[in-house]
Amino acid sequence: MLKETLDRLKYEYKLRKEDYSNEQLENITDMLLGVHIKSTYTTLCGKCHIEIHSSGELITNYLIVKNSEKEKELDFIKLKDIINNVINIKMYKDQQLEFKKRLNGLYNAPKANHRSVGLKTINTYFEEYNLNYIIYSKRDRKSKEFRDQTYWMIKEK
Predict the structure, then answer these.
(1) What are phi and psi of 32, to 5 degrees?
(2) Full DSSP string of 13-78
(3) What is the pLDDT, as a whole number, of residue 111?
(4) CA 37, CA 34: separation in Å to the nearest integer?
(5) pLDDT at 34
(6) Residues whose CB falls within 8 Å of the CB of residue 149, separated by 6 or more in sequence, listed in order
(7) DSSP string of 88-117?
(8) Nearest to 1 by CA among 41, 56, 48, 30
(9) What is the pLDDT of residue 56?
(10) Domain coordinates of the chain in residue numbers?
(11) At what angle do helices 93-104 and 58-86 cross, to 10 degrees?
C-alpha cells in the first residue's frame, strides 16, 4: 500500500521519515488512508494488524527495508565488478591497497584503512555475500620485477 501511495504521489522512496517535508508526510498519510480503506489486499490477523498500526513506524520501517535492499543489490553488483577486474590477477602491495579502497565504498565492507584488514577479513566478507571466491596470498618466485614479493590473488572456489 505504501508503494502504491508513493507511486501515485510521484514521491521517491527515502530512507528516513525526516527526509520528507511535513506537507509530503501529510499527503502520504491522507492518500495511504484512502488506499487502506479501498484496499482489496488480504488483511492481517487482528493482532498483527494492531501491532503494525500501533507502532507508528510503519512507513519508516518500510522505507528503511526498501532502501536497504536497494543498497545491498547495488553493492552486490559493484562487488562483482570489482572482483571481475582482479580475478586471477596478481595483486601486489599497491594493487592490494587499491582493491581494499574499492571495497571500502561498499555496504558493510571491510574498511581499507583498518590495519587488520587482510585475507581472513575479505574471505569472511565473500562468505557473507555468498560469493564463490577465495583470496589467498603467495610469494612470487618467478617474476624478475616482483621476485620474492607477496601477492594476493582471487580465485573461484
Answers:
(1) -60, -40
(2) P-SSGGGS-HHHHHHHHHHHHHHHHT--SPPPPHHHHHHHHHHS-HHHHHHHHHHHHHHHHHHHHH
(3) 57
(4) 5
(5) 75
(6) 92, 93, 139, 140
(7) T--B-HHHHHHHHHHHHTSTTPPPTT-TT-
(8) 41
(9) 52
(10) 2-70, 87-156
(11) 160
Distance of alpha carbon 143 from alpha carbon 61, whole angstroms: 54
Tell me if 148 sits within 8 A of 139, measured CB to CB. yes
pLDDT of residue 91: 92
Q: Cα dist. 8→41, 52, 74, 108 in Å?
A: 17, 23, 25, 33
This prediction has a pTM of 0.51
Query: pLDDT of 66-105, one tens digit each?
Result: 556 666 676 777 788 888 889 999 999 888 888 887 877 6
pLDDT tens figures, 106-148: 655 665 555 557 888 888 888 887 889 999 999 988 888 888 8
Q: Which residue has the cell 520528507?
A: 20
Residue 132 DSSP class: -
Helix or strand or coil: residue 151?
strand
* Closest C-alpha among 112, 110, 143 to residue 128: 110
